[in-house]
Amino acid sequence: MERLAGKVILLWGWRRAAVAFGSGALAVLAQAPFDFFAACLISFPILVWLLDGAVAAQPAGFLRRLRPAFATGWWFGFGYFTAGLWWIGNALLVEADSFAWALPLAVLALPAALAIFYGLAAALAKLAWSDGIGRIAALAAGFGIAEWLRAVMFTGFPWNAIGYAAMPVPLLMQSVSLTGLYGMNALAVFVFAMPALLASQRHRRTGMALALLMVVAHVGYGILRLRAEPTAERSIAVRIVQPSIDQAEKWDVAVRDRIFKTYLDYTALPPSPGHGRPQLIVWPETAMPFLTSERPDALAALGALLEDGQVLLAGAVRAEGNRDSPGVERFYNSIIAVDTRGEIVNAFDKAHLVPFGEYLPLEPLLGRIGLTKIVATPMSFSAGAGRRAMQLPEKLTVLPLICYEIIFPGEVAGTAAESDVIVNVTNDAWYGDTPGPYQHFRQAQVRAVELGLPLVRAANNGISAVVRADGRIIDAFALNATGVIDVDLPLERRAQAPWSSFVNALGILAFFAILACAMTFSRRHRPN
Question: According to the model, what pLDDT value does residue 30 have?
Answer without folding.
Answer: 98
